[in-house]
Amino acid sequence: MNTAADPAGVFEKRAARATALLDSAPAVAEPLAFAAGLFQLQGRLAAAVFARHGDLPFTGTPADFPRLLDLQASLLSFAAEKGPPELADAAIARQTEEPGTALSRLTVYWSGEREAREDYLSRAFLRPYAEVLARAGVAAERPRHEGHCPACGSAPIVSYRKELPETNGGARFLVCGLCGTDWPFSRVRCPACQEEDPVKLPGFQSDVHKNVRIEVCETCKHYVKSLDLTLDARPLPEVDDLASLAMDLWAIDEGWTRLEPGWAGI
Ligand SMILES: [Zn+2]
Ligand SMILES: [Zn+2]
């Protein structure tokens, strides 16, 4: 199937997975319900972005943003209405922003500056655009870092292991939270600082979420959450990530910093 031609379909699958998890994970029903709505909205945005790309191809640079800006209103009203209080306040403040301010905010996010990484709303809005670019083979003009997404330069939002022929215990993949690309990565390496000493890269698990591992790096203090798909291949890593939010709270409490926040905002 030509997935580039159905940019909304992948978002709809994420929304359906988040909805399916709602019943089994009542403790995180709120973030899952919010994420399901967000993925649905992103699917509609992806379809709109894809259509505009068909009219006149996007370039992968901030020069594209004036052609996207009118789409941001729907994301801001959704976040204002359904988001947790802090996010809703940020969305309300942005609803009355001058277009010039809104454009420079998106440009700062796209530049990949460290402080801008926490900008949940910009990432949520640019996600469908970045994913359409990646699927259409348009290079995103953003800084690249070792261990980060080869297609757009973002830090991995989550990691997973899956069985491949000739891998013992599963191959490790990283998932990009901006453009949706996943790529193979060494099992013994920190994607933030490239530490390769296994002693400094311990993993933590809990009895409650047996398929989840918090993969930390003692050198840079970052962690990436890993989902084991060798036991159950149904999970969509960045969606199922939300079901084990308790493990993020534990890791943060222990002093680790998540390399890239998940869709629950931490
Ligand atoms: Zn990416
Ligand atoms: Zn590290």
Q: Count of helices?
A: 8
The chain-level mean pLDDT equals 94
* Principal-axes shape call: globular
- Rounded to the nearest angstrom, the distance between the terminal CA atoms is 34 Å
SS elements, strand count:
7
Overall helicity: 40-55%
Strand portion: 5-15%
Order of helices and strands: HHHHHHEEEEEEHHE
Radius of gyration: 18 Å
Characterise the protein shown here.
- There is one protein chain.
- The chain contains 8 helices and 7 strands, in the order H-H-H-H-H-H-E-E-E-E-E-E-H-H-E.
- It is of the alpha/beta class and 266 residues long.
- The chain folds into 2 domains: 3-136, no CATH class; 156-258, no CATH class.
- Strands 1, 2, 3, 4, 5, 6 and 7 form a 7-stranded mixed sheet that branches.
- 39% of the residues are buried.
- Bound molecules: zinc ion (2 copies).
- One zinc ion binds next to loops.
